[in-house]
Amino acid sequence: MDLQTPPPIPEDADAPSRRRDATLMRTLVEHAIQKLQLPNQELWREEIEQVWAKVVPAELAAFLRPGKWERGVLYLYVTSNTRLFEIQRQHLRGIESRLRQHFGPDRLKQVRLLLDPEGAPLA
User: Which domain holds residue 36?
Assistant: First the structure.
């Protein structure tokens, strides 16, 4: 073997006539979500926003907003610890039951409260 000679270029295993057209990454991700039966966060958020005013009283909506949804658990973001405690003690059961009436107990298993990661008041 001659060290001066470069190795031969391998033949194209996939001839251009057999190659598939490029697929958009968005299409691949949507397909994976459907195949894995993961919830579409945008659709879920749109559904929540449509019923939010009916489910949450206006005085609570000033410091409470819908957050992420994972595996049947809806996380609601609250602006402060004080408000979180108040909602948990006085309003969470009512909010959760109204959401379950709308979405069904199979889709919505639980509602949890978290401090708002953005930390700013909503109103």
Answer: 25-115
Instruction: Enter the pTM of the model.
Output: 0.62
Q: At 94, which CATH number?
A: 3.30.300.130
Q: Per-residue DSSP letters for 42-77? A: HHHHHHHHHHHHHHS-HHHHTSEEEEEEETTEEEEE
At 28 the three-state DSSP class reads helix
Q: By C-alpha distance, which of 118, 116, 65 is closest to 95?
A: 65
Full pLDDT tens readout for the chain, 123 residues: 566 777 777 666 666 666 677 777 777 777 776 676 655 556 677 888 888 888 888 888 888 999 888 888 889 999 999 999 999 999 999 999 999 998 888 888 899 999 988 865 554
> Per the structure, how many domains does the chain have?
1
